[in-house]
Amino acid sequence: MRKPRATAATSGPDGLAPASDVAAIVAGTHGDPFAVLGVHEVGKGLFARCFVPNAEFVTAYTLTGIKAGELTRRDDAGFFEGKLSIKKRQPLRYHARNAGGDWWLTDPYSFGPVLGPMDDYYIAEGSHLRLFDKLGAHVIEHEGATGVHFAVWAPNARRVSVVGDFNDWDGRRHSMRDRRDTGIWEVFIPDIGAGRPYKYEIIGPDGVRLPLKADPFAFKSELRPATASVVAVPPAHQWGDEAHRTFWRNADPRREAISIYEVHAGSWQLRDDGTFLSWDELADRLIPYAVETGFTHIEFLPISEHPYDPSWGYQTTGLYAPSARFGDPDGFARFVDGAHRAGIGVILDWVPAHFPVDEHGLVHFDGTALYEHADPRKGFHPDWNTAIYNFGRREVVSFLVNNALFWAEKYHVDGLRVDAVASMLYLDYSRKQGEWIPNEKGGRENLEAVSFLQKMNKEVYGHHPGVMTIAEESTSWPKVSAPVHEGGLGFGFKWNMGFMHDTLEYFAKEPIFRKHHHNDLTFGLTYAFSENFVLPLSHDEVVHGKGTLLGKMAGDDWQKFATLRAYYGFMWGYPGKKLLFMGQEFAQRREWSEARALDWNLLDFRPHRGVWQTVRDLNYLYRSRPALHGRDCEPEGFSWLIVDDSQNSVFAWVRNAPGGSPVAVISNFTPVPRDNYRVPLPKAGKWREIINTDASEYGGSGMGNGGLVEARAEGKSISATMLLPPLSTIMLELVAG
Q1: Residue 563: its pLDDT value, please?
Q2: Active site: which residues (predicted)?
């Protein structure tokens, strides 16, 4: 049952409100406006009180149009009250008049609360898993009226009001009800609907009015530089992606082909006038391109609302709102559905590690350190000048866990790539001695963040089977991708930062020196199965003066292209899921900038087109050959064939998985062709060349083995003698034993 409506603590025998209450309402400083305004019992009758600025006369009516009484103006600012003729407490409408005209309004203070005691219980406990249905702004029917229910967490505020164009941004007009047990403030405002911008006006515990705050649970926001939240209805999209979702619900993603195209939605392509593509325009262009290039997933850099374009979305102020840069939230739902219908999954980059200190955001939300730690040694991030979430506070954990569930439920996303996990796990991350606080056991591990990540992963995997979580974690923290019940963090996958670092170091060296750095490419296999890995060549490698992948390759232009193709062949043959940042699939020459589109004209040039064709063909092979993906995360799927030929910079291994023929991967990372080179193979017979990154159609020299080699037994060993093209990776598949 609902809490009873508050009644005035004091009133005279005539039912009039105390002068101090009237003054506080008019000044906008009253902490409990529902105790004064609305309908109240006085003796055996009912009284109504309202605050209607600019009105000279107010008449009360029921919602059905029955006149309920004339109200008297107690204060010229617009405070009215008077006895009602109705016998039953009910919502009221007011007819207000002044010399300039008249208008109607429905009294928000005459309605009961929307949230109930069970909401209070689960919110206070931190176990409410549908906060996004309760907090924020929701268009609802309530006690005979249509309007918007607003609810926000601000436990230390003296007063919270909703302000918007519907009340002239006047914080005195729609002060909210304080549900003291939970720190939630709520109000139902009748007669408004979707599309209305709003913010919260908060008076902090010290009586100071804060800068207007956007809604932490806003489902839609204004386009930057405007920062207001916008009342939105839930996505009304009719989904048609059940086949896609059923497949992934029943799949073991570790044993499926996952090749991810990482995209910054604001700069993949732009309109001719330089403006952003809408979600529908992105769907028309990006989805077919991803399909044609053979990727299985598109992973977006953060698309939740953020004020500053160069942050790429990593400093978000609206975790529940798809950015207005690309149109309405419904457009994003249509994009995801379209991707699913085309067989493409959608992963979102998700940022629970920190948030920006823009005044309209979460920082000091109710005048206190609410979402963040008060102590800067735990609450301020020195690298990014941002605030760090207080993972020890159950309401904050609930806010973040609910957000992960929100994207999975409302937008059908296939996964969350969790940014900057290492910064969450260590209390001394980027801090000198004395700049951090040890945990309760005296260590540097952030035990509260560990608990949060485990809870988030348990809830996501428990409620949304088929959705994966991926950790960007750059240290050797154990069991990142192990289940929580086994002592792990519970992620599905972890980015293999060591692979990225070691391989880029290796390929930046001139081929003549690579023999001295052979271990850079072999060392990774000592830990390749310690986690469920994604191999990332991400946006982080092509910004801030780091150039492009093509630019990182050693040698002249021909060698750079050849090495990049060979590198991709090596990577697609290596155990682990694949991730490539946009533009690198066609060897973008200019360093990426969020302020411009990719250089798509490069696809008109043969070397760039050849790299794209290489990636397309590698994706096809990876998806179609179980040996290349079916045991990506398990050691039995990999065996070295040649591990120690540092002199020639040659590497070879075989990939295996049930249900498919073995595939041998052989790389030659010098510009010297190796003729009559002997490669051990696991079985005698014919091995077909299924890709050769030196093929002339890719822009290579066209050297090869005529498409076929034969492995023969000699004593106890089996091998094939073949030509290894220069700066190349070839793959061979057993076709006949």
Answers
A1: 98
A2: 419 (nucleophile), 472 (proton donor)
